[in-house]
Design goal:
The protein has 287 residues and is of the alpha/beta class.
């Protein structure tokens, strides 16, 4: 009788003795579903996977959309959102989450309470409207979002139109961005990243600020047409980097570079906007 010996190809095996994989960092996304997989929950999970972070997801809305725009939004009942969140955290330990599209005021109110009760570090994206102008939040929900969710964020990541809503100020220049960001910090926020892509400059610089520092993060403008899911992907990449143990500023820098690489390698799946290329360049090649 011959006894065969199995030799592992890698000495540092990703599997434990019982065949289960060793634990990865875990992050949660609370957002809407995009059937193109270019934005929303699907883009967040792809971003987590590209960073070797295990992604959990709670769906807040079902959208009907394609690469040309959002055609309809169907909010998930707040009770279903609550049940998803509470069932997850009763079983799985996680610290970092991101929120994206949350359509109704009652759902926003619940998510804010969930974050506070479990002392979670929340990266709050601010998708008041889609890039095609479609509404991603009911009118009454905007006030609740600003009053309940924004103040408890670890960092918020508005673009210029969203920052204008948050500060009630017009933003036409870098000075305007700095003033708006300082206004938000003065209101008690922990950190703000205002994305400068809407400015008509040669580059695409973002402004990062905390109560201790404000810094411009330069970036190149890539002219390949509109790319779907950049905001979702940036906030998800920040969460992934935090889950991996990076500090907040490094997480923002790394996330910005990841999004730049994904924009540089887009995927054309329809006749409208391009989709970010999440896996065309390895994260390990970027950093």
């Amino acid at each position: 009788m011959t006894t065969e010996t199995t030799t592992h190809l890698f000495t540092d095996s990703p599997y434990s003795s019982n065949g289960a994989m060793h634990p990865k960092p875990i992050a949660l996304t609370i957002a809407g579903s995009d059937p193109t997989s270019g934005a929303g929950i699907q883009a967040d999970l792809k971003t987590f996977a590209a960073h070797n972070v295990y992604g959990l997801s709670v769906i807040t809305a079902i959208t009907a959309q394609n690469t040309k725009g959002v055609k309809a939004v169907y909010p998930v009942l707040v009770e279903a959102i609550r049940k998803q969140c509470e069932t997850l955290i009763a079983d799985i330990s996680f610290k970092f989450i991101k929120t994206g599209m949350i359509y109704e005021a009652s759902a926003i109110d619940y998510v804010a309470d969930f974050i506070i009760r479990h002392s979670l570090k929340a990266i709050i994206d601010t998708p008041f409207a889609a890039s095609d102008g479609s509404t991603l939040m009911e009118k009454d929900a905007v006030k609740v979002f600003i009053n309940k969710l924004i103040p408890i964020a670890h960092i918020i990541t508005p673009n210029i139109p969203e920052a204008e809503i948050l500060t009630d100020c017009k933003i036409k220049s870098k000075d305007n961005i700095e003033r708006a960001a300082s206004t938000l910090i003065a209101q008690g926020l922990n950190a703000v990243l205002i994305k400068g892509g809407h400015l008509e400059n040669e580059n695409s610089s973002d402004f990062f600020i905390t109560k201790d520092e404000g810094i411009w993060l330069d970036g190149k403008r890539i002219l390949k047409g509109n790319t779907h899911g950049t905001g979702c992907t940036l906030s998800a990449a920040i969460v992934a980097n935090l889950a991996l143990g990076n500090n907040l500023l490094d997480s923002v820098r790394n996330a910005k570079e990841y999004v730049t690489q994904a924009i540089e390698h887009p995927i054309a799946i329809g006749s409208g906007d391009l989709i970010l290329g999440h896996f065309t360049t390895s994260v390990h090649e970027i950093f």
